[in-house]
Specification:
Layout lengths: L8 H19 L10 E4 L2 E4 H23 L8 H21 L2
Antiparallel strand pairs: 1-2
Helix pairs in contact: 2-3
Membrane topology: Multi-pass membrane protein
Keywords: Cell membrane, Lipoprotein, Membrane, Palmitate, Signal, Transmembrane, Transmembrane helix
Subcellular location: Membrane
Length: about 100
């Protein structure tokens, strides 16, 4: 008596996903950078995304200080969301200016 291996729904979905995503993966092969951008800091390499995040957070704190002094902070709804978006925007700008990404 010969037993056939059963291919369940999970086996068919994974095979379908591999077949569907393989051309996309081949197309994205040119998007790989040769090395990740980093900054030398006290003899160790510091990732650039961390430096850009720090720049965004410091910038958002400075913007908040200006908004509080101008009285804009009290009138803003969703303050946390607004300051997170400001920090992200400043971090992205620092990344584009500093590293061209």
């Amino acid at each position: 008596m010969r037993i056939k291996p059963r291919v369940g729904l999970a086996g068919r979905i994974s095979a379908f996903m591999v077949a569907a995503l393989a051309p996309l993966a081949i197309g994205l092969g040119g998007c790989v950078a040769t090395s990740s951008p980093s900054i030398e800091f006290f003899g160790a390499y510091f990732p650039s995304w961390l430096a850009c995040t720090l720049a965004g957070i410091v910038g958002a704190v400075l913007v908040r200080i200006v908004f509080v002094a101008a009285g804009i902070d009290d009138a803003m709804p969703f303050r946390l969301l607004i300051y997170v978006c400001i920090a992200a925007s400043l971090g992205f700008i620092a990344s584009i200016i500093g590293f061209g990404r």
